[in-house]
Amino acid sequence: xxxxxxxxxxxxxxxxxxxxxxxxxxxxxxxxxxxxxxxxxxxxxxxxxxxxxxxxxxxxxxxxxxxxxxxxxxxxxxxx
Length: 80
Known about the structure:
Layout: H1 2-19, E1 23-25, E2 39-42, E3 51-61, E4 64-73
Parallel strand pairs: 1-2
Antiparallel strand pairs: 2-3, 3-4
């Protein structure tokens, strides 16, 4: 019985960790259903050169998930 529970917990962990991965969109209006803890990169040109806007589902409220917006370094392909 504990083996089945362990497998269930592992599957649940994998499913929730894949939901939290960041995606990239061109406009913040394209982010419709932001989940708690989810991060989405928005490339709309509002941040300085070398940075990109990160929108996070920060806090659960009665009206839904509250968003936070910050400019973070843009990570591109590494060069030698």
